[in-house]
Design a protein that fits this description.
- The structure holds 2 protein chains of 2 kinds.
- Chain A is about 35% helix and about 25% strand.
- Chain A contains 9 helices and 12 strands.
- The longest helix of chain A is centred in the last third of the chain and has 16 residues, at about 200-215.
- Chain A is globular.
- By secondary structure, chain B is mainly alpha-helical.
- Chain B has 12 helices and 2 strands; from the N terminus they run αααααβαβαααααα.
- Chain B has a two-stranded antiparallel ribbon with strand order 1-2.
- The longest helix of chain B has about 35 residues, at about 65-95.
- At the A-B interface, α2, β8, α3 and α5 of A face α9 and α10 of B.
């Protein structure tokens, strides 16, 4: 278990090999208008692993997640997904920006679920799920439709294919959003506070779908405030604060028995808030 | 003081039942209605008693062949053509304006600056006579092909197609292109506002699914922007119907107002001619309003119909 992250991890490590992590982030840095949001994040995520990113708001967890599929560009450090450098191509000792087309093709491998769902409001649930396979991968409409029906059933919405997002509850919308991301058969799923915009009684249905997904062996990185989900589902928990990884390890260690004072105070605060408005 | 009554079944206890309240009186409404009815009666009576209105003549003028031809060619085809150029051009210019390429952004800005800055009347007059004077023919081919050919001593001058500007510039098509180019500048601003009105998360969701910019724009952003773009475009279309009367500056005279007022001047039935042209403009405008209603319904899919729900439910609000 690494305690701090200020030391840049040893780079030049072999990127091939059997147990190469699916996601490797080394010394990731990011500033917004001079405000340093990420101050050197290191993270390895192995295949089939569920990693939860915890931490107070403003700690950089969402920014880090968005860097992985290039919704933000990193200022420093490197991220590899499945051995491919994210956003750049290394040639002759120089980094070259990828073209829009190459960036789009890297993102195809990564599913993302947003806090505010971001479903396409002018399409039905089924059309939302079919859209990317048909438009991006060129899958035949018939095949895409069959797969979309299957995925909607998998998230428990087999009866709602022709509903528009505005006709669905928040929990249902988020489950459609998960089905939409899965339709591209991603190697990796990113969840950005998937339950934070939901009414409390709708949180469970979304977490249940995510838990099923984890059981099926999907590699997932989840930014969340749901401590019980992190404790029960995560293989690895990372606690971030102020743009650095403060503490990481097995959930029972980090959540159950935090070493660092900042982790302790955060968890204590979460617990009292949770008691105040369950 | 009356005792509250309940009408649903026997009032077994004294708990309040269905409400049957008296409405708030609105005496002002009745006064306004009376005033308006009196004014309307006066107007109608003047129609009947003042023979100078001469409505039968106005109706006659409305149906004359040159008027109908002017209505069809100049006004209706002119509006449709100019709006097609305007909407397509406007969306393209708006997309350029929002592009990451600084040169395209600059081109878009200059276009809007120029065409929004000059009056349509001046633009059309200029297209009608000025352009033909400056360039009496346009050769389409390899840029600087003629100079190149004479330099190399070739017989071909790399010209594929020649347009006689002097003939073309006074046609209806030239007028339509002029109005369309001008309209594109206004539509660009409307389209830009529409594109910017779409939540940033939509573009991110499209990008996260691996769509490129073009796909995201075409499949996700523009269909949602249309909801914002359609109402002001209806406005622009109705304005364009009226601006086709400027085609006479080209001069294109197969146009509604020119033809009608010509008849009025010739027959000294000036006012009936104005009534006729007013009636035609109102009819065309009304038809367009109906069309706009259906377009708004089409692009409001997933947002509830405009009549019963004005705003989409915020994405976070639940309630199955």
């Amino acid at each position: 278990m690494s305690e701090t992250t200020t030391t840049p991890a040893e780079s030049g490590r072999s990127r091939t090999g059997e147990d190469q992590p699916l996601v490797r982030a080394v010394n990731v840095m990011k500033s917004f208008h001079g405000n340093e949001v990420l101050k050197g994040i290191d993270l390895d995520v192995h295949r089939g692993e569920v990693v939860c990113l915890l931490g107070p708001s403003g700690s950089g967890k969402t920014t880090f997640l968005r860097c992985i599929n290039q919704l933000e560009t990193v200022d420093g450090g490197r991220i590899w997904v499945d051995g491919d450098l994210v956003g750049y191509r290394e040639e002759g000792g120089h980094l070259h920006h990828l073209t829009d087309k190459q960036v789009a093709s890297q993102r195809r491998e990564i599913g993302m679920v947003f806090q505010r769902f971001n479903l396409f409001p002018h399409m039905t649930a089924l059309e939302n799920v079919m859209e990317a396979p048909v438009q991006v991968k060129g899958v035949a409409r018939k095949t895409a439709k069959a797969r979309a029906v299957e995925l909607l059933e998998q998230v428990g919405l087999g009866d709602k294919p022709s509903s528009y997002p505005a006709q669905l509850s928040g929990g249902q919308q988020q489950r459609v959003a998960i089905a939409r991301a899965l339709a591209m058969d991603p190697k990796l799923m990113l969840f950005d506070e998937p339950t934070s915009a939901l009414d409390p009684e709708l949180v469970g249905e979304v977490l249940r779908v995510m838990r099923d997904l984890a059981d099926q062996g999907m590699t997932m990185i989840v930014v969340t405030h749901e401590m019980s989900f992190a404790r029960e589902v995560a293989d690895h928990v990372v606690f971030m604060d102020g743009g650095v990884v403060v503490e990481e390890g097995k959930p029972k260690d980090v959540i159950g028995n935090p070493k660092h004072e900042r982790t302790q105070s955060f968890l204590k605060r979460m617990r009292t808030e949770h008691d105040d408005n369950p | 003081m009356t005792t509250p009554t309940t009408e649903d079944g026997p009032a077994t206890d004294d708990r309040p039942g269905l409400i049957q309240a008296r409405p708030v009186p609105h005496p002002g409404r009745w006064v306004a209605l009376a005033v308006i009815l009196v004014l309307l009666a006066m107007l109608v009576s003047s129609f009947v008693t003042n023979e100078r209105w001469n409505f039968p003549k106005a109706l006659e003028i409305m149906q004359q062949t040159p008027v109908l031809e002017g209505l069809w060619k100049g006004t209706i085809i002119g509006t449709v053509g100019a709006m097609v150029i305007g909407v397509v051009g406007g969306v393209v210019i708006a997309v350029l304006r929002l592009s990451s390429n600084p040169i395209l952004r600059g081109v878009s800005f200059v276009y809007t600056w120029f065409f929004r800055g000059i009056p349509r009347l001046v633009l059309l007059a200029m297209i009608g006579s000025g352009v033909g004077f400056l360039y009496n023919r346009l050769d389409f081919g390899v840029p600087f092909g003629q100079q190149l050919a004479s330099f190399l001593g070739l017989s071909s001058d790399f010209t594929f197609f020649t347009l006689n500007v002097n003939q073309f510039s006074s046609t209806l098509l030239a007028g339509i292109i002029g109005l369309g180019l001008s309209e594109a500048a206004y539509m660009a601003e409307i389209a830009r506002a529409g594109i910017l009105s779409v939540d940033k998360g939509q573009g991110e969701a499209a990008a996260a699914l691996g769509m490129n910019r073009g796909q995201a724009m075409r499949r996700v952003i523009l269909p949602q922007a249309m909801r914002v773009i359609v109402p002001p475009t209806g406005n622009e279309t109705i304005a364009m119907v009226k601006d086709t009367s400027l085609l006479s500056a080209i001069p294109v005279i197969t146009e509604l107002f020119y033809q009608t007022s010509a008849i009025g001047n010739r027959t000294l039935l000036i006012m009936p001619a104005f009534v006729a042209v007013t009636a035609w403009y109102l009819i065309v405008g009304s038809v367009l309003m109906v069309g706009q209603y259906f377009l708004e319904k089409r692009f409001g899919r997933g947002f509830g119909t405009p009549s019963n729900r004005r705003f989409a439910r915020p994405a976070g609000a639940g309630g199955a």
